[in-house]
Design a protein that fits this description.
GO terms for molecular function: 5'-nucleotidase activity; metal ion binding. Keywords: Hydrolase, Magnesium, Metal-binding. Pfam families: 5_nucleotid. Among the domains are: 162 residues, 3-Layer(aba) Sandwich (Rossmann fold), CATH 3.40.50.1000; 138 residues, no CATH class. It has 22 helices and 21 strands. A hairpin with a 5-residue loop joins β8 and β9. α2 runs parallel beside α17 and α19 packs antiparallel against α20. The longest helix has 25 residues. It is globular and about 85 Å long. The chain starts with a strand and ends in a 5-residue tail after the last helix.
Length: 622
């Protein structure tokens, strides 16, 4: 027996015996109860009531009822069944576009939320400073000082509607998530959403009024926007949602540009900064491999210097000389304008805290430079676009410009680790399995009986199925965030708008830059075969002739064996499965293993083909 786990939401499945138990003896419309090994949906035939007797319809409904009752019994076995499923690596590097690290000669880094890791306390600090500025400078009501930051409310990737004042979670195609639309702190129902927008889909004209909240500082901004709107609603005061956004945005910008946030962090670094020795190991490893490094940040030098000294104070040689890790250090770069402007670089005198007036036509070691532009940067360094990779957390300010300029890009998504751990959790997988089994039965019922011709029995079954589906969906959502759910997925398992932008601007993404320590600097990183959703989402379809099974088998074999042994075992597998050898160079070329870390160690997989690799793979580390 073996388990299957379908992609894009089709899921973890029960044991083979459970599948057999669900299959009716007589063939139903559209075929027997479909095995969840299949990826493509089976075409269903809508019964024509003028040709089929009502008793036959009742019989079909009764069969679906029987499958539902059998499924409920099968749910009891799912928790045990999902324990053996492969798990994704929370510290893995996930690939949207193939990337050869052996071609990368230059590594560039943002500072905030990339090299510097912050505690959740920072969002509270930004929130408090911004609300106080709005009260003191913009004359907002004194009661606004009582606002408290709620870290359980926002997620990254939301959009604020400047016209209507709503916080929206959008899916990959620009449609509003039904359970992800808030006016202030109140969730709007589907009818209210349609009254405001006419439809769930955001048109091009409406999209112009949306502001994406995409970086890691957006949590405090999203919460403050919602709290201000809610305050005006509770006070029954008229307001313009555009003005609220402008004021909140100005306040957030002020606390950064004025140095209030920077001084707050450096005054208590233990409260706001997180020390991480792996960052230093990653940077020194790159230097030892002969790579060029540069730091490109919007933050001022004194703030970066204070943070780096704190984070590296436990290292013997780099606390006071961290600049030696980088070939070029650029502060106050004014991204994203840096990528399109022609501003000149200015040399920064650290002792005098002033900018020099002489022209910068070369970057000298251990020196600091301000402002500048991508055009001047490339002219001075002679670093070609494809050999440069830039790490940043803001999809627009950090990564959109470099991707258009031909640089390779790596998005740092800190919440990725937690989301993957939730996806790996057996409780989440149990609810996911329930959701998709119920969804399948509900779809089968709708395809069998037209809405206008449903009997009382049919309607009752439909309500029961829908109730179970909504319960499972709600439980999955709350595991991530009670208000907006997962960052990368909608409640229905579709990709979010945030996932869309990652697809568009990030060649690879991971939770921290130091995760690259798990890979060789010469590794070839490839997009997993047959991607249906984000690369970090579990997707395995053990159909006997499904190429996704080949991918899974390759991952485990490559993770467990040496190159030659892996290739031999793969060829044995292909022969047993009537497959021919195909482009193994993508994973085995130059002795580089680039896919093995997609799955966590101490897992194993075997297929019924006769190639018994259980004992060899079991408990082997990647």
């Amino acid at each position: 027996m073996y388990l299957s786990l379908a992609c894009r939401g089709r899921i973890f499945l029960p044991l083979l015996e459970f599948e057999k138990e669900l299959k009716p003896t007589d063939k139903c419309l559209g075929g027997s109860f479909r095995s969840y090994n299949a990826v493509a949906s089976t075409e269903q035939t809508v019964l024509k009531l003028d040709e089929v007797d009502g008793l036959v319809l009742d019989g079909e409904v009764a069969k679906i009822r029987g499958e539902f009752e059998a499924a409920k019994q099968g749910f009891l076995r799912i928790p045990e069944a999902v324990k053996g499923m492969p798990k994704m690596n929370p510290e893995g590097i996930y690939v949207n576009k193939n990337l050869r690290l052996d071609n990368i000669q230059v590594y560039g880094f943002d500072y905030d939320y990339t090299l510097a890791h912050y505690s959740p306390n920072l969002q509270q600090l930004i929130y408090d400073l911004a609300k106080e500025h709005m009260v003191n400078e913009f004359r907002y009501p004194e009661t606004c000082v009582k606002f408290r930051y709620d870290q359980t409310f926002p997620i990254r990737g939301l959009s604020y509607d400047k016209k209507n004042g709503c916080l929206l979670k959008l899916d990959f195609f620009g449609s509003i998530e039904p359970d992800g639309c808030y006016f202030g702190r109140r969730k709007l129902n589907r009818k209210e959403i349609e009254q405001i927008y006419g439809t769930r889909h955001i048109g091009r004209d409406q999209a112009r009024g949306l502001v994406g909240l995409m970086d890691f500082f957006c949590f405090s901004e999203a919460c403050l926007l919602a709290d201000v709107v809610q305050h005006f609603v509770d006070a029954k005061l008229e307001f313009d949602a555009t003005y609220i956004y402008q004021d909140v945005d100005r306040a957030i910008q002020h606390v950064h540009r004025s140095g209030l946030v920077h001084r707050g962090i450096l005054s208590d670094p233990y409260r706001y900064l997180v020390k991480n020795g792996r960052v230093l190991r990653f940077l020194t490893m790159l230097r030892e491999k002969g790579k060029k490094l540069f730091l490109l940040t919007n933050s001022p030098y004194n703030f970066v210097d204070g943070g780096m000294r704190f984070m590296l104070e436990d290292s013997l040689g780099y606390r006071d000389s961290w600049r030696e890790l980088f070939d070029v250090v650029i502060a106050k770069a004014n991204k994203p304008e840096f990528y399109t402007s022609e501003h000149p670089f200015r040399y920064y005198d650290m002792e005098k805290d002033t900018l020099a007036f002489n022209k910068v036509d070369a970057f000298l070691p251990n020196k600091i430079y301000y402002h500048g532009s991508l055009k001047s940067f490339l002219q001075i360094t002679k670093w070609n676009g494809p050999e440069v990779i830039y790490f940043g957390d803001h999809l627009f300010s950090d990564l959109r410009g470099p991707s258009k300029a031909g640089w390779r890009t790596a998005a740092i998504i800190h919440e990725l680790e937690n989301e993957i751990r939730i996806q790996n959790d057996d409780n989440y997988r149990f609810e996911q399995a329930k959701f998709h089994i119920i969804q399948e039965l509900l779809g089968k019922l709708h395809a069998t009986v037209a809405n206008s011709q449903r009997s009382e029995v049919c309607q009752l079954l439909s309500e029961e199925l829908n109730d179970e589906r909504l319960k499972a969906r709600s439980k999955m959502k709350k595991m991530f965030n009670k208000s907006f759910g997962a960052t990368f997925l909608t409640d229905k398992g579709q990709e979010s708008a945030f996932a869309y932008y990652i697809h568009q601007y990030a060649d690879v993404y991971t939770s921290k830059p130091e995760n690259f320590l798990l890979y060789s600097p010469e590794a070839w990183l490839h997009v997993p075969f047959d991607i249906k959703i984000m690369p970090h989402h579990v997707k395995v379809q053990p159909d006997r002739h499904d190429t996704s099974l080949i991918l899974l088998t390759k991952l485990y074999l490559v993770a467990a064996f040496e190159i030659e042994e892996a290739e031999h075992a793969l060829l044995m597998y292909f022969q047993n499965q009537l497959y021919t050898k195909w482009d193994l160079c993508l994973e085995l070329q130059l002795g580089t293993i680039c896919l093995s870390s997609y799955y966590m160690p101490n897992m194993w997989f075997y297929e019924q083909s006769g190639v018994d690799i259980r004992e060899k793979v079991r408990h082997r580390r990647c």
